[in-house]
Amino acid sequence: MADEKLRLGGMALRNGLLVHGPTHWSAAVRREDGTIAVASGRKPRLRVAEGVAGVRGLLRLAEAVAVLPLVKRGLPEARLPWQDAKVLAAVAAASAGGHLVRRRGGGEAALAALSILPSVVALRGGEVAEWHGVEHKAIAAYESDGDAADAAKEHDRCGSHLMAPMLAANLTGTALLKRLAKEPSQVAQGAVALASMGIAVEVFVWAERHGSTRAARLLRRPGHELQRLLGTREPTEDQLQVGRAALAEILRVERGAS
Predict the structure, then answer these.
(1) I need a labelling partner for 25 at 20 to 30 A (CA). Which of 12, 42, 60, 223 fits?
(2) How many domains is the chain partitioned into structurally?
(3) Is residue 240 domain-resident?
(4) CB 29 within 8 A of CB 19
(5) Which residue from 74, 73, 83, 66 is spatially nearest to 12, judged by alpha carbons?
(6) pLDDT tens digits, residue range 16-43?
(7) Where are the alpha helices (DSSP H) in 34-84?
(8) How many whole angstroms separate alpha carbon 243 and alpha carbon 228?
(9) Is residue 89 part of a domain?
(10) What is d(CA 135, CA 13) in angstroms, rounded to the nearest whole number?
(11) What is the span of the domain harbouring residue 61?
(12) Is residue 176 part of a domain?
């Protein structure tokens, strides 16, 4: 009987790929000398409120963030997407722009547009978009028992599918908050942002479980177009080799743990 497929996720690095499995992570990067470096380890697990809708998704996102220092320690050559002067400048510009918009009473749509500026800069600078394509193609090849070179560079479980429901929830929540308080506190605004992210994750999970429905296809359409037009580019064979190395390592450590 064929082994049950693992549910894999990932994140594009500036010089490679990070893959998440159920219990472990793996990463592979292309060194400056042309060789491939690989590392892996066990994922941290937050075992509180796991069955609470809206909270469980935030916990999984927190776990994904907690992996990053482990990746840097295990693979010092790995460069995270925001490890770039242009991206850091975009973060500063978005923060300053957001503060100015709030002072002048600007709309939430303008704030939402500013919030995604650093991500756009990260994707369009360097090779992050190509590595994002490697992530999707490597995981899709594993899921379909095919080859990464033949897989699509867009994937139905990409985090881009969180963007539309998160923005919609945030805009709605902020509008309701302003009805309750003329000048909402930073704590209240932060709570709305967290709740919006939690709602977006629940919508994401629902769309994955009901992928064949028209509603799920409509929910995924904005994220798919974001991937197609901006978030991903076709990678080179050298980059795909790094993706295959990261995939082989996650399969090795996950199978060893079972």
Answers:
(1) 223
(2) 1
(3) yes
(4) no
(5) 83
(6) 999 999 999 999 999 999 999 999 999 9
(7) 56-74
(8) 19
(9) no
(10) 10
(11) 1-80+236-258
(12) no
- 101-155 residue pLDDT tens: 455 555 554 445 445 544 554 555 568 889 999 999 999 999 999 999 999 999 9
Question: What is the CB-side half-sphere exposure of residue 146 using CA atoms within 13 A?
Answer: 13
Q: Given pLDDT bands bounded at 50, 70 and 90, which one contains residue 86?
A: low
Q: Which amino acid is at 19?
A: V
Residue 29, beta-bridge partner list = 16, 37
Bridge pairing between strands 9-12 and 24-30: unpaired
How far is the C-alpha of 235 from the C-alpha of 253, rounded, in Å?
A: 26
Longest dimension (CA), the chain: 63
Q: Is residue 35 part of a domain?
A: yes
Distance (Å, whole) CA 79 – CA 102 = 33
CA distance 79 to 70: 13
Q: pLDDT (tens digit, 9 = 90+) per residue, 195-238?
A: 888 898 889 889 988 988 999 999 899 889 888 888 899 999 99
**Residue closest to 59 by CA, chosen among 187, 162, 197:** 197
Q: If DSSP codes are grouped into helix, strand and coil, which group holds residue 20?
A: strand
Distance CA 25, CA 18 (A): 7
